[in-house]
Amino acid sequence: MPSPDCIFVHAADLHLDSPFVGLSGRLGNAFGDLAVRASLESMGRLFALAREHDADFMVIAGDLYDGAKVGVRAKVAFLQEVRAAAAHGLRVLVALGNHDPVDESWYRDGELPENLHIFAPGDPETVSFLARSGRRVEVTGVSYRQRRETENLALRFPPADPASLSVAVLHANVGGDPNHDSYAPASLDDLTRLGYDYFALGHIHRQAVLAERPMVAYSGTLQGRSMKESELGSKGAMLVRHSPTEELSAEFVELAAVRFERIEVEVPDGGETALVEAMAEKVTAAQGALGDLSGLVVRVTLTGSTDDFDFEPEFLEAAAQALRDRTEGLARPKVFIESLRSKVEGHLELSEVALRPDLAGLLAASALEAPPLQADLAALAAGLRAGALNTSTVKALREIASEGLLGQAELADVAARAYRLAIGPLVGTDARGAR
User: Fold this and answer.
1) Mean of the per-residue pLDDT values for the chain?
2) Which residues in the chain are classed under CATH 3.60.21.10?
3) pTM score, two decimals?
4) What is the three-state SS of 317-362?
């Protein structure tokens, strides 16, 4: 393969100096110290990646900072990295997003480095320059003017110049991801029809390649910050190479200092010691599979079925602390147990539950009399006994209502109690039990 005629880095959603909300206080001083450094350490790795590969430029697709009130520490650290990058011939081009819009700008009180370009709001602007190889590059981008940008900014972008390596930069929700605010909403077709060689996106915190030719990609956030689904797993940036034969390839590179993971552990037989050892084994395996990270934050969820333990909050917290003690000595990355949760089901004896004068008892009794729905009703009785309202609960209630396996008086009782548990609308009943 011929040597690339241009190399660049695509990053987004650095959220520099962002706090790990709700975690620093619970996980102790060691985590607090790590959290304070995490986003800046990840940024340092980002610029090191660009230097290592002699990148021609870097694009940052929004949310460089977490908010308008930028800490001195974060601002100084970023501008120092940019200035140091100038010695390596690296340009840095930033399109501001909803967390760092132009109207709340952080850069007006000082002179910017010459190798840093902040795209203006309004109509996208294009910056042209030559890569080290002599290849002409055009980078087109636009910044948010205010936080709540509801316009489809992609419609403002001009068509790409086919004579240049063309890169577009935008902070946007492409395809209507329901887990993120609908800022600068656009369709994938809005982007691909413009003909840019690479469309660098920010806002969605999970890395994803939406299209290959032309390439449209989210780099994801640089550093996860919580146990939200979008913050879990590998976080980093895209390293993009363009060859003289017009081939373009993009490689995701993990750069986060701290990783967030959820781990499920099936509860074993053998008592509390076996339980803690089973959890520690899974956590150790996850920790050992990681590279050069500073920290691993883990939420452990117990699964399976047992009557050996009473999984009340007090027990779970005590078991979590035992797991913390057990994993405290693990080498880098340092492990932090965020919490221990349970999805464990007890071994249900229907005949015993059927004697109870409550909804669980009513359903258990019905299960004994209705073999076709015995499994569903048994699971429902167990769930209600544990105070769980989930999809299995809803499914079983729907079955009861639709199959007519309970008498009208019993069905009315089930419906009324279900309604009081705030799931009546989900099973097609009202407070009086009407279907």
Assistant:
1) 82
2) 6-254
3) 0.77
4) HHHHHHHHHHHCCCCCCEEEEEEEEECCECCCCHHHHCCCCCHHHH
